[in-house]
Amino acid sequence: MFAPLATEDGSGGEFVGPSINEFFPDAVLFVGTPFEMNRIMIIRVIVVVALVLVFWLGTRRMKIVPGRFQSLVEWGLSIPRDSIAIDLLGKKDGTRFLPLLTTIFFLVIGMNITGIVPLMNIAGTSVIGIPIILAVISYVTFIYAGVKKHPGKFFKNALFPPGVPWALYIIVTPIEFISTFVLRPVTLTLRLLMNMIVGHLLLVLFFLATQFFFFQVGGPAALFGVGTLAFGFVFTLFEILVAVLQAYVFTLLTAVYLQLALADEH
């Protein structure tokens, strides 16, 4: 919170920054029922519907010589396929897990990008629900892939790496358990969540400050509003980059975990 400043009429003004309460808005639909929805839940539903609609329209009548929209959809689909799934897991396993990796990639992008969309202005991943669900799905798939590929050996080799002296397992095994089976889903969740929370708070801070200097303080102090508006615009572009990068990183780490689970040394 900033110290009070004098407004144009001399009455004084006070800047109030963004609050963590913005991530817990009141319910607006189906209030009082088990299906009540707040603004963030509505945004999530809109994103899912939009993604389904885009990919349905882009793939329902595919042509050998694609049009612009089909080309754009195919290019988007090639990102998780070629640079993540096939590149890390090979053609066989990459194709096998491609639906999961593609879904994670575009769902995270869609949920992230709403943070800079007018009238939405908050990411669907800025509350822990979506990040933790995706992290659990990634974690369960990692365990499933490892157990199916190496039944009876996956957990043993993960917790007791071969080649380590038996006496050192007292130290190594707890570290491997925490890093492999605890920290992975936790870090996946927190990395995505905290980036979206911080990004939202900074954007709100810049644009609230712009409104404050332009419309509440006015006068020469309005020049500060030009600066905060410029920072807000630059950071909006940066948030687009972060939205895409976080989707790529989340999907990439999921593929890396699958690669480790499927590795022959297990």
Summarize the model shown.
This protein is mainly alpha-helical.
Output the keywords.
single chain, 266 residues, mainly alpha
The class by helix and strand makeup works out as: mainly alpha
Give the mean pLDDT.
Answer: 91
What strand line-up does the widest sheet have? Answer: 1-2
The fraction of residues in strands falls at under 5%
**Uncertain spans, ≥5 residues at pLDDT below 50?**
1-11
Total helical segments? 7
Q: What form results from the Cα inertia axes?
A: globular
**Quick one: biggest sheet?**
2 strands, antiparallel
Evaluate the radius of gyration.
24 Å
Order of helices and strands: EEHHHHHHH
Rounded to the nearest angstrom, the distance between the terminal CA atoms is 54 Å
- Helical percent range? 55-70%
Number of strands: 2
Number of domains: 1
Description:
By secondary structure, this protein is mostly helical. The protein has one domain (20-262). Strands 1-2 form a two-stranded antiparallel ribbon. 69% of the residues lie in helices and 2% in strands. Strand 1 and strand 2 (37-38) form a beta hairpin. The model is unreliable at 1-11 (pLDDT under 50).
What topology does this entry show?
Layout: E1 27-29, E2 37-38, H1 39-59, H2 68-113, H3 129-149, H4 154-159, H5 169-181, H6 183-217, H7 222-262
Antiparallel strand pairs: 1-2
Helix pairs in contact: 1-2, 2-7, 3-6, 3-7, 6-7
